[in-house]
């Protein structure tokens, strides 16, 4: 879990535990913050190589989860324009999403929690 004022993304302990379990089965993972479609705007988790990112995606950061490879988190550039002033935390809740995220068979789903960036974070990202 990261707690630096200059991070855009973080993960809760519950989500980190699920990521460790999923990585043991699927190998290295990545998130892409969905902009709609299947599961609204849920963070979708995929094994690396199963979802292609491209020039229209922004790398928000890499989640440092003890025991597994860092987990990159992406979002489309157009969606990032709306979210660039927020800090995002990936959490885990009971329930099953309707998308293709790898946690779905576990009866859980990843959920995005957001808050506005602090003044220090805004300055660190050059947004003031």
Tell me about the largest β-sheet: 4 strands, mixed
**Number of helices in the DSSP assignment:** 3
SSE pattern, N- to C-terminal: EHEEEEHEEH
User: Looking at CATH, which topology would you report?
Assistant: Hypothetical Protein Aq_1857, Chain: A
What do the pLDDT scores average to?
Answer: 89
Total discrete domains: 1
The appropriate CATH architecture is: Sandwich
Report the count of strand segments.
7
Beta fraction:
25-35%
- The CATH class designation is Mainly Beta
User: Regions with pLDDT < 50 over 5+ consecutive residues?
Assistant: none
Query: What is the radius of gyration?
Result: 14 Å
Tag the structure with descriptive keywords:
DUF779 domain-containing protein; three-stranded mixed beta sheet; DUF779; 3 helices; alpha/beta; Hypothetical Protein Aq_1857, Chain: A; four-stranded mixed beta sheet; 128 residues
